[in-house]
Amino acid sequence: MNSSQPMYHDQYDLRENLGEEGWKREAEYLRRELDRKTEEHKRDYENLKASTRNLEIQLEQVARLNNERPLGMLPSDTIPNPKEQCKAITLRSGKELEEKVGRNSMKNGEQEGVEDEDKEKESLQMGKTK
Q: CA-to-CA distance for 68 and 60, rounded, in angstroms?
């Protein structure tokens, strides 16, 4: 091969020698390859469209959940006790006690102990503020 001739020159000569039948076969082969690639690209495009739609749906769901949550409330915040600040007592058996638990239900001796504790807390708090 002469160094002044381009590299593709041999390939060009091969195609020149194909003749009319050869060109028809070559054109048919190229058409089939083009059709195959076109179908492959269409399939890939449809898959991408479906994936994009799924992502859009998921994003809409996240946005909806985010809008339903009150401002300033983190997703990890607990839901308040529906029976007013943990005053409900549920036994292991599942039975709920209706009796109110509080200072008024304590015996007199127990009541005095609670009052002493309250006084200690107040004195500690006053000591901190001075």
A: 12
